[in-house]
Structures are given as structure tokens and as C-alpha cells.
Amino acid sequence: MGIRMITLPEKYLESMKRLLGEEFPEYLACFREEPQGALRLNTLKTGIGQFLDNSPFELQSVPWSEKGFYYDRRQANPSRHPYYFAGLYYIQEPSAMIPAALLPVTPGERVLDLCAAPGGKATELAAKLEGKGMLVANDISVSRCMALAKNLQLAGVGNAIVTAESPQRLAEAYPQFFDKILVDAPCSGEGMFRREPGMVRDWLEHGPSWYSSLQRDILREAYRMLRPGGQLLYSTCTFSVEENEGMVQWLLEQYPDMAVCPATPCPEFSPGMPELVDGGRKELVHCVRIFPHRTRGEGHFAVLLEKRCEEPVAQGRQKPWEGAGGRKAAKLPAGASAFLQEIGWDLREGQTFLERKGSYSLLPHGLELPDGLRIVSAGILLGEEKKQRFEPSVQLALAIDKNAYPRMIDLEAGDGNVIKYLKGETLILEQTSGECIPKGYVLVCVDGHPLGWGKGNGASLKNKYYAGWRMI
């Protein structure tokens, strides 16, 4: 990989000289280095030790994330490995792992990722929930939410709602509702100039002042949605004091019941810089900064805050749910019920099934879905009713254990048939090491991890992998 030459704006360089002082030349020198490649393991699907014992890549630990690991981008491409398609890990810039790592989510909580696309932080928050409680993952852009929903589905997350809403509309639906909120705010992106040089053009067009106004609007609504005693993690991928310590200072002045919490210590973290803010409060030192010349990651900023007030906790709106995004509560068709019973799912009274254009989803108990929101996905997409036949979805396959379904083919990662399957090809009996292909729907796995469905006839397996997700 060649090093890309980047022309940095003079105004930006002057601000970095003031920020870094004598370290400024070291910062400039880091632009001659390649950005780091990293992945974060999905503990909904694999244990850390289990994966490391059989990892197809050489990995080194990321200091601030027990699930994060560096890999050599010159020697490995994890996005082309079958384990990626099984949802065992998420490829993520190492510094971007910090916000979800610092937000202390516990199973059973109500969690909001307010600016969630494409899903790197949301998938980790879901892993922390361990399938209990609920996650609302939001982005104002419907197109970005499609990628967000896919990444949550690959990760096997069943207790999430993906919304494409403005923070204001979301706050009207969920006042003082969430235990934990992550705001990885849109920003001027200064910390990503090395990795994504195209962001320099956006900086020239907008810059920190434009983004700081947007960040204040987002934080106002996030505050409205945070319950008393709840915690909010604010982060950016910029160095701008105006968007970082300055934004935290504004929040503390605007809402006196908000307080900064010291971050979990890490030798790679640099402290916040209250001295660069007019009237900077001393607790701003507990903010976390990452500089690329000091560690193996791009520029980042994060701070954990807590709402320390004793107001009654309001709940989300309890209006009868009338449907959103074309979805409506529905009775599950007989074919779908039979299929779910075959995989051992307990179809108890009180479960909510949603229908949209013949596709059915299961909304797990405890997921509150107020009326009127723009919903991209909710719960687990089960499959589609076609000509009175139920066709299970790849999302359902990714959400179950390999032993849940009676008909299964388990291929090794090195078997060429795995790639053929992911490319949408039919598998022939001789290509499966002599295994007999069962008749009917078959769960296709790689090293014990589900990938999707096929339909067997005894001699071959018709490919049912979702066309839009195929390996190209």
C-alpha cells in the first residue's frame, strides 16, 4: 500500500500547532505511516479465547478494548473471510472502539445509539446487552440505516430497533427513557484526515463552527431522552477543542445536573484540555483524547457523563402501536409457526409479530415501539410468506445456534464450497466431502457458525443466500 500525499489546510495546521506545541512535527510525521487495520470480536457469537485459539489472522490486542485486535492490512483481508459473513467480528478503526468500550452497558438496560450508522458502535452495545433489554439504533438517513440494519443482523442481534429519525422526533417518543445513550456526533473529522483524506474537503466547506451548532442540537435531545441516573457517552473523531471540551463545557453549563465521570484508565489515553477552553472546568481533564502519533489509531475524543437528578422517570409514550414504515401487528402464518417450532422457538402468548409486504418479524418482549416513528427494522426478520410457503430469512439463520435446526451442513472455512455458497452458487453432493444433503431447508454453517439457508434435494443444495449480501 502506498502512502497518500495529503494537503492540509493552513488554518487547520495552525490550530494543531497550538494544540500540540513541540509534538506538532511528530503528528505531521504520522501521515507517512499507514493507518492501522483492526477488528472487534462479536461476543454474541464467539468467545474471545475461542476465536484466538483458531484465528485465521495474526492479531495483536488493542489497548482500550478487550475485544479489539490489530491485524496487518498487507497480509490479511478479514472482510473476505467467511467468518465476516458469519458475523464473528466487525472491522473497525481501532480508536472508534473507544466510545462503546467506555459506556458501561449492562444486560437488561434500555440503550440508545443516536448517530449509529454504519453500526460499529451499535453492534458492540448490543453485545454488551447479551440479548436482554433493548437497543434503539438511529440515524437520520434512511440509506445509512440500511447498512446499519444489515450490520446488526449479521451480528445476530434480535433486541434492536433501527430508526431513521431526527433526534427531536425520537425525543418526543422516548422522553427520559434510556439508561445509556451514545452520541458519536457528526463532526469536522480532523482525526480521520490520514485515513480518509476526502474529509479535508468537507472541513473546508463546513469546519468546526458549523458542526458545533449541530452537536448542540443533538445533545439537547439526547439529554431529554436520558433518564435520571442514566449515563451519556459523547464522542467525536476530531481534534477541535470547540467540538470537544468546548461542547462538554456548554453541556455542563446548560444542564447543571450533568456531571463528568472519570474514564476507565488506559495508558494510551491522553487527558482532556480544560486550559484551552474559556473558563474551562477542571473536570474536563477526565475527557479522553487519542492522538495518532502517540498510539496505533486515528484521532478521537470521548467523555462519559451522568445525569445526577432525582426527577421521576418518565416512560416512553404508551399509545397503542398502529404500525410504522408500512408494518403492522399480525398473526404469524401457519408455515412460519411450524418452521419456528421446528427450530425450538417458544411461541408464547403476548409475543408481537410484525408484517410488511408479506415479510414477518418477531418483536421480542420488552421492545417498546411508539407509533409514528420511521422504522427501518425491528426485532428479528423471520422470513417471507410466498404462495402459502414460508421462506426463512438469512437474518433468522444468523440469529440462531447451529444446533437449533435439525438439518444442517457444517463446512470448514478452508472448504471452497463456503465461498461458492457465499457467491450464490449451487452446491453438489461431491463438493461437500461425501456428506448427504438433507431434503428441505438446510442450515449452512462454517466451522459451526450459521451463514444462511439452502434447500436440499438429496443430491444438491439450492442456494438461498440473500442475493444482496453475496460475496462479489
What's the structural domain tally?
A: 3
SS strand fraction:
25-35%
Question: Low-confidence runs (pLDDT<50, min 5 residues)?
Answer: 316-322
Structural class: alpha+beta
Total number of strands: 24
CA-based gyration radius: 24 Å
Ends distance: 22 Å
Note the main attributes of this structure.
about 475 residues, alpha+beta, Rossmann fold, Nuclear Transport Factor 2, Chain: A, ten-stranded mixed β-sheet, five-stranded antiparallel β-sheet, about 25% helix, about 25% strand
What features would you describe in this structure?
- With 472 residues, the protein is α+β, with helices and mostly antiparallel strands.
- It folds into three domains: 95-307, 3-Layer(aba) Sandwich (Rossmann fold), CATH 3.40.50; 328-397, no CATH class; 401-469, Nuclear Transport Factor 2, Chain: A, CATH 3.10.450.720.
- It contains 14 helices and 24 strands.
- A hairpin with a 2-residue loop joins β23 and β24 (460-463).
- The longest helix has 18 residues, at 208-225.
- The radius of gyration is 24 Å and the shape is globular.
- The model is unreliable at 316-322 (pLDDT under 50).
Describe, in short, the structure shown:
It is built from 14 helices and 24 strands. The protein has 472 residues and is of the alpha+beta class.
Element layout with pairings:
Blueprint: H1 10-20, H2 24-29, E1 37-41, H3 48-53, E2 60-62, E3 65-71, H4 82-85, E4 89-91, H5 98-102, E5 110-113, H6 120-129, E6 134-138, H7 142-154, E7 160-163, H8 167-173, E8 178-184, H9 199-205, H10 208-225, E9 226-236, H11 245-254, E10 258-261, E11 270-271, E12 288-290, E13 300-307, E14 328-330, H12 334-342, E15 352-356, E16 359-363, E17 375-378, E18 380-386, E19 389-392, H13 394-398, E20 408-411, H14 416-422, E21 427-428, E22 439-446, E23 449-457, E24 460-463
Parallel strand pairs: 5-6, 5-8, 6-7, 8-9, 20-22
Antiparallel strand pairs: 1-3, 1-4, 2-3, 7-17, 9-13, 10-13, 11-12, 12-13, 14-15, 15-16, 16-18, 18-19, 21-24, 22-23, 23-24
Helix pairs in contact: 8-10
